[in-house]
Design brief:
The complex is a heterodimer.
Chain A (H helix, E strand, L loop, with lengths): L20 E4 L3 E9 L2 E4 L2 E3 L2 E9 L4 E3 L2 E8 L2 E3 L2 E8 L4 E3 L2 E2 L2 E4 L4 E3 L2 E2 L16
Parallel strand pairs in A: 1-3, 2-4, 2-5, 3-5, 4-6, 5-7, 6-8, 7-9, 8-10, 9-11, 9-12, 10-13, 11-14
Chain B lengths: L1 H7 L7 E3 L3 E9 L3 E3 L2 E3 L2 E9 L4 E3 L2 E8 L2 E3 L2 E8 L4 E3 L2 E8 L4 E3 L2 E2 L25 H5 L3 H7 L8
Parallel strand pairs in B: 1-3, 2-4, 2-5, 3-5, 4-6, 5-7, 6-8, 7-9, 8-10, 9-11, 10-12, 11-13
The chains are: A mainly beta, B mainly beta.
């Protein structure tokens, strides 16, 4: 077994910050926008924007059609729209159609990505206006 | 193997949880259980058990088979079985086949304990999302091990 890239990843459930977690399981559809201050795990479908102040994980069965923005994003599923993050990890099962922008980017082999990528070094310039707290 | 689980699979494959501090502006349609502690402005349609926590606020219609309300609702609630707890504040109509209201709950609106056929139907989950084939569970498809899953999920988050 080769060394896994994510051996040190913490499980989504244990969060260092508020300890709160949002989960949208597979088979769930949200038609509308989601704004959250805590970690967010998506395995379902969201037709709208996501703005998350903490860690956002888009699971393998997830499909997002809209803007995604969070501090830390891990994409395993499909995204049709832009992704904005401070740290962005695009996993091998991910399919992104849209622009991405991050300060730190990682893309695994076999990920599909169609769009522009921009990496801005300035910390505050990236923050979208709909982040809940600054 | 344990790390693989964390990477691309939810700790508990089936429940939805929206914690306090989260706002959803739009509709939520789900086939599985749903624990809501945040705010929803829009409709909720849940085919499983829906628990609306004490800090939750919902403005809109709620349709579920089993609903427990501990928070604030402004809108209609349709449920097969509806339990309104003491911390609940409901402004709007309710319709249920089985109803329980605890001491100190606040409720303003019409109540309809409908006969067979009068309860509104559950909305269909739009087919844009690929459903599992019949008999297949999320666990089967994702090849999970139950013990490890149960351990990952905090007791607080479990829905009984």
């Amino acid at each position: 077994m080769g060394k896994k890239m994510n051996e040190e990843i913490t499980p989504p459930v244990s969060t260092g910050n508020s300890g709160m977690l949002n989960i949208i399981s597979a088979g769930t559809i949200i038609i509308g926008n989601v704004y959250t201050e805590s970690d967010f795990r998506v395995d379902g479908e969201i037709d709208g924007e996501i703005a998350c102040n903490e860690k956002l994980i888009l699971g393998k069965t997830s499909r997002v059609k809209g803007k995604v923005s969070a501090s830390y994003v891990e994409v395993f599923g499909e995204v049709e729209g832009s992704v904005m993050a401070e740290t962005l990890e695009v996993k091998s099962s991910a399919r992104i159609q849209g622009d991405i922008s991050a300060q730190s980017l990682e893309m695994e082999p076999d990920a599909l990505f169609d769009g522009t990528c921009s990496m801005l070094k300035k910390k505050n310039a990236d923050r979208p206006s709909y982040f809940l707290s600054e | 193997m344990a790390n693989r689980l964390y990477d691309d699979v939810a700790p508990n494959g089936l429940h939805n949880i929206i914690s306090a501090g989260t706002t959803i502006i739009g509709n939520v349609i789900t086939e599985s259980d749903f624990r809501l502690d945040g705010k929803v402005e829009g409709e909720i349609a849940c085919n499983g058990k829906l628990v609306i926590g004490p800090k939750a606020q919902v403005k809109g219609k709620i349709t579920a088979s089993y609903t427990e309300v501990l928070g604030e609702i402004e809108g209609q609630i349709y449920a097969e079985k509806l339990i309104i707890k003491s911390t609940a504040v409901i402004q709007g109509d309710i319709a249920a086949r089985s109803l329980e209201i605890e001491h100190d709950a606040q409720f303003n609106g019409t109540c309809l304990m409908s006969k067979e056929g009068e309860l509104p139907k559950m909305p269909e989950v739009p087919q844009s999302f690929t459903p599992l084939t019949e008999g297949e569970t999320v666990e089967d498809e994702l090849d999970l091990e139950d013990d490890e899953l149960a351990d990952l999920l905090d007791d607080d988050l479990k829905i009984d």
